[in-house]
Input
Amino acid sequence: MATKPIENLCNALEDEIIGLTRELIRIQSTTHNEEKIVRFISEKMKSLGYDEVMIDDFGNVVGRIGSGDTKILFDCHCDTVEVNDPDEWQADPFGGEIIDGKVYGRGAVDMKGAIAAAVYAGYAIKKLSLCEGKTIYISCSILEEDVEGEALLYLCEKNDISPDFVVICEPSALKLALGHRGRAMLTITTQGVSSHGSSPELGVNAIYKTKTIIGRIEALQSSLAADNKSGSVTLSRIESTAVSLNAVPDQCKLYLDRRLEVGETQTSVAKEMDALIEGTEAIWEIYEITDKTWTGKSVNCSAFFLPWELKEGHLLTRSSIKAFNEAIGGEPALFKWNFSTNGFASASKMKIPTIGMGPGNPELAHCRDECCEISQIVQAFKFYTSIVNHL
Output
């Protein structure tokens, strides 16, 4: 179990940690609207005595503890998805209510419970003098729900933060996540010739030109599903353009969500896409993401994010297992997230050893009646505090 000093401090702080979780849930922070929660977290870190707290021009907030050579970054994102059905929740989605040992509300799992655990872990690491020879960063990044990784990448590259290790605090039900699948957003476009809807024979319907391609996409998914070393493909949207509802569409665009397993690359996916449009006049492209942060910073990136994994024998994995045993007890379950996280930045792009661990059942993320067990938030705090002893 956790060392006596960590256990004692945890007992003293438990109400504050859960209280912070509830406060964070009460601050609505949908993507692009994170300013209020970012400033709130910044003031909280300052009140807890962090050595430095910064809000960068992208809109992220990061707190620093210590100034040693070994640098460890704990990343949480503070944006959430929308709530479109508040009247259908059993509890106010922005109330932070506690029912049967769980705190309810949008972001309880994804991921305000983890923010509270990590922010207080930074405080505990300093109070218990665990940061000797180390620099600890607690980052609360933005825009993750729309563009995973870009905010964390910016935070590190533009603010001269170079972690040796990264812990992604996304929900994992306290399992250790050793990676996750990649994600590519792709488009296939067909061109037609418009004509009046009363004379379709005078035009070329761009939608009809996708029939063969759609069948190939379906067959590709069947093939990928039969190979457990490959990812998946979903036809997620179809758009067409025409001058009116009384006209033959002159363009049709298919949107594909291609999930990638380790070993799949941009080259291998390009071959698949070429095969999907072979013999047609269609073109395919990697979707280009354009966005803006709450500070007005422009975001532009290609939506092709490679998968990543951490080996079981890596120092970070072994240290995390030791920290889990010390903080929580027993051996942790090891797995890979099925969804994507800011690990795209740390592990895939910056090649920093990265592991994931956070409170809450990830299957409840983005769902009605989202909730997180209080006990898991407290245990995550113990883990985040303990791991610095083992790196």
